Amino acid sequence: AEPKAECEIISFADLEDLRVAA
After folding, report:
1. Residues 1-22: tens digit of each pLDDT
2. Residue of 2, 1, 22, 4 whose CA lies nearest to 13
3. Which H or E run includes 1?
């Protein structure tokens, strides 16, 4: 999961990565 400053849309994959990392 990579932070996208130019895109405010967070993909479900990124959300999963964030939740797992948390």
Report:
1. 566 666 667 677 788 887 787 6
2. 1
3. none
